[in-house]
């Protein structure tokens, strides 16, 4: 008995020590404990400064119970960043604090709301999922919102830098990446200083942007600094920012410049931000974050790629606060035993050009990425076998074979939510190290699976690589409320399914064309042999490369009628925007700019049926593969004519030349008619002259002279 008691006691002492030391550990790391819900008194005093996201809950509501663990995890994950941004997550138990909740007019549980020093600001959007990610996105969004600047009382984290310090960074002495801004000033200590900048209208607004940027980047481990070009003249001159040192033209405006320096390197470590000033903070954020990310070129696994290609694209009602990002992942796949360091050098040279293509992220992998492409491809075929009355579709192995070569190292490209594999055709070492070739390959494939369509993006998409993409298919969506958003997302799923189903037909047509060319080639060399041509000619014919035309591709887009009300008519999709409903689809044939709004049976095209989407895409883009292509009716994009006069589209399509030709034609016809008339009249006169002598045509002319 006693011995057992003693051992229990010893155990308890031991355990207490363990617990105590764990507590000490967490204190040492500066991690606070998850706090108790606020009392009314605490609420009153805490909201006086900073921003607060409050969860008003009841311990008896089931949604509140479901939220509790998410809330705790969010609080833990965000506490460090929250301190920096002056925004906290707190809870209020409305059963314990009935008066407070009544005063704040809480009518449902849980109620998630944002408060500032002057009280209630707004609700966490009802339609958003209550997840850690969306809660943190919401917190960041609000902390960085200029409307809340005062409540947050944010100070810039940017450090004042000298030219010498910057040169040390360039020499590789830094251990963190630095985003540095250059100003036309002499003694700006903090980048928040209130200064009168000469000839720099952009400077004060950029100071505010820089403050927010300094906070945002600090949470991604990127430091920020600022340099006064008037006092670091030689550095600024060397970097080509002469105008920040001296005003040469008193009328011209100047703007601050930005550069990123990567740590622990002394070559290829300086990146200058674009050639133009941008008013968009996210451009600078993306510039810094993506270059840093890509310079680290993290490893990625086949498993991670499978997750990426399965990502479901979902519109959210508030895309402003949680923008839908669809990333492009470029993977350098290599075998460490056979790859030489020179092969990897190409990655370093890709960083700069890739920073100019949106959403591209660079990785490396020692795993066999061919496996990832097969997995993705199989998954696509699982999806498109949705129609049991059609013969089973199987992965186009031949297509994969012409696209995916077993080689090492190799470059693969995967897009968020896209099962179609892409591989770089670098057959030789030179091609694998040709940065320009690789960059243009990535550029061609760099569109997201779903492109947002608005007047400026449609213009760009119409110009985008016309040889490879022959069409743009656009689905109408509406994100103004939860129900419409859900409906839009459902339609988008069907829409993508139809596009994949089309992709299967398209890949078969690519393979068919290659095979036809191969047959032709074989026949040519057979004929040459028969003719007894020189062996040189035969060899030349045999090694002639078969062009690999992976074309007739389709670009997918969505057009949000709640965001661009006048968009539809502005983009030339017709004048009656109210006629367009969620789920409607238009197909735009890129080379001819003809727009298809009806399927082959004369019905309005919608994403209801992936089968109809496929049939329509085939009829428009691969007419030789379709029996329905003759039934398709179309209109010219931006046509000024109503349906009755749609024949005039043909003329309108050729613009100035179209109308000029028609005008010319009219002139020719008129002249022809006129001549014909003249001939007739002449004959009449001649006939008359014969009878009345000089009173003929010639006589009249003479009188005029
Ligand atoms: C948070 O904002 C308040 C003003 O609302 C300010 O007094 C306080 O210093 C700020 N705290 C931090 C850590 O910036
Ligand atoms: C920042 O750096 C620290 C250590 O250098 C690391 O532990 C942390 O994960 C990094 N955070 C991010 C967001 O990269
Ligand atoms: C399945 O395919 C057939 C033609 O092959 C078509 O008539 C039918 O509408 C399709 N069904 C669905 C559900 O798409």
From the spread of the alpha carbons, the general shape counts as globular
Gyration radius (Cα, Å) is 34 Å
State the major sheet.
Answer: 6 strands, mixed
The assigned structural class equals: alpha/beta
Ligands and ions found:
2-acetamido-2-deoxy-beta-D-glucopyranose
Mean pLDDT: 83
How many helices? The count is 24
The number of strands is 19
Strand content: 5-15%
The amount of helix comes to: 40-55%
Characterize the quaternary organization of these chains: single chain
Straight-line N-to-C gap: 145 Å
Give the topology.
Blueprint: H1 2-28, H2 40-46, E1 51-57, H3 62-85, E2 87-93, H4 98-103, E3 111-116, E4 119-123, H5 132-144, H6 149-152, E5 159-160, H7 163-170, E6 178-183, H8 203-218, E7 223-228, H9 233-238, E8 257-261, E9 270-272, H10 281-296, H11 302-310, E10 328-333, H12 341-354, E11 360-365, H13 369-384, H14 397-403, E12 410-415, E13 422-423, H15 429-432, H16 435-444, E14 451-452, H17 455-463, E15 469-477, H18 482-531, H19 535-543, E16 553-560, H20 567-570, E17 585-589, E18 594-596, H21 610-621, E19 635-636, H22 649-653, H23 655-692, H24 697-704
Parallel strand pairs: 1-2, 5-7, 6-7, 10-11, 14-16, 15-16
Antiparallel strand pairs: 1-3, 3-4, 6-8, 8-9, 10-12, 12-13, 15-17, 17-18, 18-19
Helix pairs in contact: 3-5, 8-10, 11-13, 18-19, 18-21
